[in-house]
Amino acid sequence: xxxxxxxxxxxxxxxxxxxxxxxxxxxxxxxxxxxxxxxxxxxxxxxxxxxxxxxxxxxxxxxxxxxxxxxxxxxxxxxxxxxxxxxxxxxxxxxxxx
Length: 98
What we know:
The chain is an all-alpha fold.
């Protein structure tokens, strides 16, 4: 028996309708048990957690997190510097006698 991928089972456990997965769950006890466990876990989390407080903690943690610093990439600067050095060397080179 081919089982649906885990993300599809997770989506059904979260409440997304999927007739194919629902038909599979009716015939497959292990998958049905897995979806039931996910559904029960989500319900327990929702009943034990204040959504407003949870969101406030997430925002607070995000505000305290160090900001990512923008790193200047040498990838674009190196060719420009090499070209500038080549021009300087070419301009400073002694003229060749003809």
